[in-house]
Every structure is written in structure tokens, then in C-alpha cells.
Design goal:
With 565 residues, this protein is an alpha/beta fold. It folds into 2 domains: 399 residues, no CATH class; 133 residues. It is 58% helix and 9% strand. The strands form 2 sheets. Strands 2-1-3-5-4 form a 5-stranded mixed sheet. A two-stranded antiparallel sheet has the order 6-7. A hairpin with a 2-residue loop joins strand 6 and strand 7.
């Protein structure tokens, strides 16, 4: 295939990816009634940026849950945007309360920064697939990556996962160049990029492993083990990894106490649980690694790409293990480490998505070239088309929900149907519930999900996000009290009646939800249920106190509930 056609195809893939991201780029931006975005973690990046004081040459983010390279990158772009008068940056929150669109533009720019990293991931996925196997593998890999919903979603938010994937891919690309070239610069760039990856997300440092694999493959036959280990190119690459990390996250060295405190807290969180999002060992998914392979990966990739990627891993290991082991050396340790965690959101695995799609594309490529019969080639082409049809249906239907977010639909309904100044009880503020106008309604935050709390607050309406009750349903042991409360509320046993429900919907939703992936739909696109208080007239018809013996009381109550018309 001519080079120009390949480039044109890659450009079209990038255009498709960018178009798919539009719904999410503008989703849940800050507005006058709520200055938070809909993603609960986006503010963490701005918290890091706000902690810096460039006028005093203080670039300490003072938060090390995430390394600082990505906040630095966003901060630079925001500063440039401010200099050209596109945005207004001020420390005054009251300014943004009356100029919420200015804050929305700041979030929009941050999301666009991530989008460019996403485009970079597509380009380097193509380059890796092309260099390691064939241009068609690279092109199909780029296409698959551009239509995977988890990748599209997080390429459109202010999060570190996609930028970390980008730097990991850059490192792997320069690592692959070492196979056919002895250039010293490939080692330097591979090491530097790995350092940048670690300075974006700590566990992305695992992308340095393929460099060691390629180096050993290249020199182990001609050099002694000692000379291979202490080869000057490998030493320089290791030094550049440290340099890249230091450039991107310098205060992890200068502010060690805070750094170790944040890292310790984060490790405790992922190993012991976080707000109920942890994997329930008492449930049907009893092993974290089984959870990865049965729930996370099928949803993250879509069933067709996931299954063909497993086939690609098997075939490539059988036919050309030296090549497959290079990128598997990044994928396997990553899965092993994250599989030991109790909290493992789908987005944590985003740096692995390009590797999976390369193996998926390789499976189709092997199927196409390994047989000469025309029927078999047609089978490979048909398989590719079926994968694309499924993924377009799955991804398209999922992404469309972002332009019809249940939270927004619920908020519109409340404004039209709930009388002004009525009391609305909500179980969770911020990103998980509709942005209800607090100047129009009296809001009550029901923090402890018990009937006693509800009786004391006694709101006219209740707004419930599926984020809350799904957590309780997933782990009835840990959240026993709230589970029983939600179960009573949702089955009509309390004096509240469900009057409206807003749900997200996407292709094959029921199957994926049965697999229970820790997917962002649990909190990015939760279902919203609205309940109205029923006025009840309670009369006691009979009250008997009998059989008092040894401190034992037998109470017989019969209560008649008459709904007021």
C-alpha cells in the first residue's frame, strides 16, 4: 500500500477519534449552579496547580497522589491561554461564581490537552504495530484504539491515564528502534520517555522493562552477562529515566515527607478499599485476577477486541515469541501488580489498551496471511467488519449518553416539576447527583443512610444516585445498614414513592453490568431516581400488652396506613 494512502487512513482515524470525543469534551463542565465538573477527580489536577506559586519560583504541587508532569503541562497551556486573553485566571472564587463560563473554559483547555495526548497515543500505536509487525497491523491497531470507549472517555477528561499511556508508548517505540539500530539516541529517548511516563503516573515506569528485554535479546549471545548488565548504553538509558522522572516530578525528592505520606495513603487505599468501589471478595468475583479477565478487560476493550487480543497473544507467542515478549513484558507485570489491588478502576489499565489492540490486530493479520484459500481471507475480512460493527454500536451508544446525561435530564425535570422552595434530600453531593439549584430549592444532604436520619430531615423529595445503592448492593456485609435502607426505599416500604427515573443505556448493557466491571458508569453516568414523600395518616386500631413475664414483652400492633388524597 502506498505511503500516502496509509497516512491518509491514519488522518481519517484521528478525525474519527476527535469527532467521537466532542460529546465528552463539553460534558459536565462547571456551571453557575455548580462550579465542579462531573468527574470527581478532575479537580485534583487543579488543586496541584493552585498549590504552586510561580512568582516565588515555588512549583511544589504539594499533592503527590499523582506525579506533577501532567499538572505542569496543563499549567503551561493555561498560562499561554491567559496571555492571549482566551481565559481569565484569578484566585478569587467569587469571580468564577459570577463568571462560571470562564471556569468552564479552563476545564475545556485542560481536557483538550489530554485529547492531544490521546491523538499521540493513536499515532505511536500505529508506529509500534508497523515497526514490530506490519503496516496493516499498525493501522488496524490505531483504528481499534480510536473506537474503544474507555480510551475515548479518558482522552477527553483532565486525568493522567492517557498522558501516561502516551509516554509509555513513546518509550516502547524508541525501544523497538534499538532492534535494528545501534544508535545511542534510541536508548536515551527510550529512557527519558520512561521517566516522563513515571512522572505522569507512577506505575507507568514499567514501560522501561521492554528496553531491558530488547537489550538482552540484542547482546546476550555476544557478551557476557556482566557486560550486558553494565553496558554503557543501558546505564545511560537508566540515568535518563531518572532524569526524566526528576524533570517531571522534582518535588518528590525535595518534599520527601509529604511525598511518602501521600504514596503510603494511596497504597493503603488501593489495598484496603475506597468508598465501596473495591472488589467484593464475598461476591461472585472472589479473586482480583479473575475480576480483571472476566470483568474489567471485556468492558474496557469490548468483547470482540478482548477475545481477539487473547488469540493474538497466543499466536504471536507461538510464531514469534521474541517479538511478542517485548510488549508482553510491559503488559504482564502491569496486570500482575494491579491485580493485587483491591481497588482497580478500568481507567487504571488504560496504558495497556494500545498493547491489547496491537495483539487483536495481529490476530486478524495472522488469520489473513496464514492461509491461502480465498474463503479464509474472506473470513478474516468478515471478522474485522463484525468487530467494527460491534464496536461502533457499543462505543456510539455509550458515548451518546454523555450528551443526555441522566443527571442533566433529572435536573431539567426537577426545575419543571418540583415546586420552588420545596425540600429536596440528596444522598450524595457533587459529581454523582444532579446539579440542583440551591437558590431555588432547600437541599438536605442525607449523610447517614438510615431511616432515623430520613425521619429527622423529612424532605419533600429524595434524589438517589445509583452510585450509592450499587455500592451497597455490591458489598452487603460492609454496607449492611445502608443496603437495607436503600432496599426498603426502592421497594416502596418507606413513605416515599418513585415518581421518575433517568437511566443511561448502551449496547449490551445488561451483560456488562452482570459482569460488574468497576466501570465509570457507576459514577460518571449513574441512574437517577426521584422519590416523592407520601403524606400518610397513621391510626392505631389495636394495642395489646400481654404476657409480661421475666422481662419479656409481647407487643401486638396493627397499624392502618391511609394515604391522603
Amino acid at each position: 500500500m502506498k505511503k500516502n494512502y496509509v497516512i491518509l487512513a491514519l488522518i481519517l482515524i484521528i478525525v474519527l477519534f476527535t469527532f467521537s470525543s466532542i460529546n465528552i469534551i463539553t460534558w459536565g463542565l462547571p456551571k453557575e449552579i455548580d462550579l465542579n465538573s462531573y468527574h470527581p477527580d478532575e479537580s485534583a489536577i487543579f488543586k496541584s496547580i493552585k498549590s504552586m506559586n510561580p512568582q516565588e519560583y515555588d512549583f511544589n504541587p504539594k499533592v503527590f497522589i499523582y506525579p506533577s508532569l501532567y499538572p505542569y503541562t496543563v499549567a503551561v497551556v493555561l498560562k499561554i491561554s491567559s496571555l492571549v486573553k482566551f481565559i481569565t485566571i484569578t484566585s478569587s472564587q467569587s469571580f468564577y461564581e459570577t463568571h462560571s463560563w470562564e471556569l468552564a473554559k479552563i476545564f475545556l483547555i485542560g481536557r483538550l490537552v489530554t485529547l492531544f495526548f490521546g491523538i499521540g497515543c493513536i499515532i505511536f500505536t500505529f508506529l509500534i504495530g508497523k515497526r514490530l509487525y506490519h503496516w496493516s497491523v499498525g493501522l488496524i491497531s490505531a483504528l481499534f484504539l480510536s473506537i474503544i470507549p474507555t480510551f475515548i472517555i479518558h482522552s477527553s477528561l483532565i486525568k493522567v491515564d492517557v498522558p501516561a499511556a502516551f509516554w509509555a508508548l513513546v518509550s516502547i517505540y524508541f525501544t523497538l528502534r534499538i532492534i535494528k539500530s545501534n544508535s545511542f539516541y534510541n536508548y536515551l529517548f527510550a529512557g527519558l520517555s520512561a521517566g516522563f511516563a513515571a512522572a505522569t503516573k507512577y506505575n507507568a515506569v514499567l514501560c522501561i522493562i521492554p528496553l531491558f528485554v530488547v537489550h538482552f535479546q540484542k547482546y546476550w549471545k555476544s557478551h557476557s552477562f556482566f557486560k550486558v548488565i553494565f553496558h554503557r548504553f543501558l546505564i545511560y538509558a537508566s540515568i535518563m529515566t531518572l532524569v526524566g522522572y526528576f524533570i517531571g516530578n522534582p518535588y518528590s525528592f525535595f518534599d520527601l515527607d509529604r511525598f511518602f505520606l501521600d504514596i503510603t495513603n494511596e497504597m493503603t487505599r488501593v489495598h484496603t478499599g475506597h468508598m465501596g468501589f473495591d472488589i467484593n471478595p464475598a461476591g461472585f468475583i472472589y479473586n482480583y485476577y479473575i475480576f480483571e479477565f472476566l470483568a474489567v478487560f471485556p468492558f474496557m476493550l469490548g468483547f470482540p477486541i478482548y477475545l481477539t487480543s487473547l488469540g493474538g497473544i497466543l499466536l504471536s507467542t507461538w510464531y514469534d515469541w521474541k517479538k511478542s515478549i517485548i510488549i508482553l513484558s510491559f503488559l504482564a507485570p502491569y496486570i500482575i501488580i494491579l491485580g493485587s489491588w483491591r481497588v482497580a478502576f478500568a481507567r487504571y489499565y488504560i496504558p495497556l489498551i494500545p498493547i491489547f489492540v496491537i495483539f487483536s490486530s495481529l490476530f486478524i493479520y495472522y488469520l489473513f496471511i496464514s492461509v491461502k484459500k480465498r474463503k479464509s481471507k474472506l473470513l478474516a475480512i468478515s471478522g474485522l467488519l463484525l468487530i467494527l460493527i460491534y464496536m461502533f454500536a457499543f462505543t456510539g451508544s455509550l458515548i451518546l449518553n454523555f450528551s443526555n446525561d441522566p443527571k442533566d435530564l433529572a435536573n431539567e425535570w426537577i426545575n419543571l416539576n418540583v415546586p420552588e422552595n420545596d425540600t429536596i434530600g440528596i444522598f450524595l453531593m457533587w459529581s454523582f447527583t444532579p446539579p440542583i439549584n440551591q437558590s431555588k430549592y432547600n437541599l438536605i444532604l442525607v449523610q447517614n443512610q438510615t431511616y432515623d436520619t430520613l425521619k429527622s430531615s423529612n424532605p419533600d423529595y429524595l434524589v438517589l444516585s445509583s452510585t450509592k445503592y450499587l455500592i451497597s448492593y455490591r458489598d452487603k456485609n460492609q454496607f449492611n445498614e445502608s443496603y437495607h435502607f436503600y432496599n426498603q426505599l426502592r421497594t416502596g416500604k418507606l413513605n416515599y414513592k418513585l415518581i421518575k427515573k433517568f437511566e443511561s443505556d448502551y449496547f449490551n448493557q445488561e451483560l456488562y453490568q452482570k459482569l460488574d466491571p468497576m466501570f465509570e458508569s457507576y459514577y460518571l453516568l449513574p441512574d437517577i431516581e426521584i422519590y416523592k414523600k407520601e403524606n400518610l395518616n397513621i391510626s392505631i386500631e389495636k394495642f395489646n400488652l400481654r404476657n409480661i413475664h421475666g422481662g419479656y414483652c409481647d407487643l401486638q400492633l396493627r397499624i392502618k396506613l391511609l394515604q391522603c388524597k
